[in-house]
Design goal:
Order of helices and strands: HHEEEEEEEEEEEH
Radius of gyration: 27 Å
CATH superfamily of the largest domain: Rieske [2Fe-2S] iron-sulphur domain
Strand content: 25-35%
Distance between the termini: 68 Å
Oligomer: single chain
Strand order of the largest sheet: 2-3-5-4
CATH architecture of the largest domain: 3-layer Sandwich
Structural class: alpha+beta
Number of domains: 2
Bound molecules: FE2/S2 (inorganic) cluster
CATH topology of the largest domain: Rieske Iron-sulfur Protein
Length: 175
Amino acid sequence: MSIEKSRRDFLGLAFGSVAAIGGVLALGAMKSTWEPIPSVMAAGYTTVDLSTITPGEFRTVVWRGKPIFILRKDHTKFKKCKNRDTKVGKEDFLVVVGLCTHLGCIPAWEPKKNMFHCACHGGEYNDCGVNIYGPPPRPFDIPPYKITGTKMVLGEDGAQFKKLVSKNPTNIYKG
Ligand code: FES
């Protein structure tokens, strides 16, 4: 073998190795840009301490930019909604996506009437979140959530969520 040929072989091998290492490093860098940064991953979840909501209180929280209506039932005033309420200890809560199922407006809670009213086209929902008047075609959708103790994490599929959507298959929030 000539000195010139071994020199060429050596240079080819050296360049090949550098290119392969560079490729692996570039892939690693690209992978880290594909993965969401921790703050983005955390943005998919909203945690609510349900024990801070008093009986009869209505509260709106934001999850993934959407309003989530939470109503802590006070059964001297509100209906029990067998397949719509979420049980937390002895308390019942209505937890729904606060967007009208007609065209997506945000209905208002009317505490004196115990119902939601959508100003866009006059749709109404009762305190079970079920449409009772006007153009809304179905009850409010149910967001995915998981209950642990009195903490609710919106964005996770917990046992109560799975049970409720099995009874209300047309009300699974699709995002
Ligand atoms: S968007 Fe609510 S009734 Fe039309």
